[in-house]
Design a protein that fits this description.
single chain, 113 residues, alpha+beta, two-stranded antiparallel sheet, 6 strands, 25% helix
């Protein structure tokens, strides 16, 4: 794993950009990354696992044929990398799902019909 340079760690948790910071291997403190960063190679898998746990908690079932498809009654939720489509005959079902997931801490936006 590549350790980013020009960052210094203060008090075990404060990460600052510093042009003159010593190489991370020479610093006495480290920072543990507790969230995945958008753009990393495994970010999409981390997001998929994260949203999957929320959907399963809300009673969705993951398709055995396509792991990107989640089904609950007449609601289909399709997840692809960091995009999702919610298909349902009643828009209020999709609105309620988005609101419920947002309440649980999942950051989702409705970008159109």
């Amino acid at each position: 794993m590549h350790v980013p340079e020009k960052f210094e760690v203060k008090h075990h948790k404060l990460l600052r950009l510093n042009e003159f910071a010593p190489h991370p291997s020479k610093q006495e403190h480290i920072v543990k990354l507790i969230k995945n960063v958008y753009g990393l190679a495994d970010a999409s898998k981390t997001w998929h696992d994260h949203i999957k746990s929320g959907l399963l908690e809300f009673g969705f079932e993951q398709s055995k044929v396509d792991p990107c498809l989640f089904i609950k009654g007449n609601v289909l939720f399709i997840l692809y990398v960091d995009d999702a489509v919610c298909l349902t005959p009643d828009k209020s079902n999709a609105d309620q799902l988005i609101a419920d997931l947002n309440k649980k801490g999942y950051i989702l936006t409705d970008e159109g019909p």
